[in-house]
Design goal:
Helices cover 22% and strands 17% of the residues. The strands form two sheets. A six-stranded antiparallel beta sheet has the order 3-8-4-5-6-7. A two-stranded antiparallel ribbon has the order 1-2. α1 (13-23) packs across α3 (69-78). By secondary structure, the chain is an alpha+beta fold. The mean pLDDT is 97.
């Protein structure tokens, strides 16, 4: 199914920030978007992305909600609440580069003054994405970090965009 780049009814920038805030401190698993970690999910994702599944601590994370960077945004789009299971939607299945590609507002990041709450921020290759809250970036940073709040570091984050799937208030 093709990507349908239009806002999802009821999904807003404020809701995105509320969702990402609720995920802070949870684990990062490559290829995930808010599912509950389990042995079955681990085996599935390890088969798909073996280089990202070499750490020994995955079993200790079973039972927790898990995301990768783009999955943090998809988790919001596909979940009714910050704790409900996501319902996969291929029409919005974007990676970081695709979120940037489909954005209707975007550009090079020079200062925080360019950003609205809920805008997405990207690294220089647009392969990593985070969510601007107005004071910090919420990001699923990697397995060693999990979902964290970071300062807006203009040496790490080089681009910004809106998210075409949400409405900005």
């Amino acid at each position: 199914m093709a990507i349908i780049a239009k806002p999802v009814p009821g999904k807003t920038n404020i809701g995105l920030i509320e969702y990402t805030t609720a995920q802070l401190g949870l684990p990062y698993w490559n290829g995930t978007y808010g599912q509950t970690a389990s042995a079955a999910l681990y085996e599935y994702e390890k088969a798909r992305h073996p280089k990202y599944y070499t750490a020994s601590d995955f079993p200790s994370q079973y039972g927790k909600r898990v995301h990768d960077c783009g999955g943090l945004i998809k988790g919001y789009l596909w979940s009714k609440t910050p704790t409900s299971p996501p319902a996969y939607n291929s029409a919005q299945d974007c990676n970081a580069e695709m979120f940037y590609q489909y954005a209707t507002q975007k550009g090079e990041l020079v200062s925080a003054q360019q950003l609205r709450k809920g805008y997405l921020v990207y690294n220089k290759t647009k392969t990593h994405v985070g969510v601007w809250t107005g004071t910090e970036v919420h990001e699923a940073r990697g397995h060693s970090y999990g979902v964290v709040a970071s300062k807006l570091d203009l040496t790490r984050f080089k681009y910004w965009s809106n998210c075409c799937f949400i409405t900005y208030q």
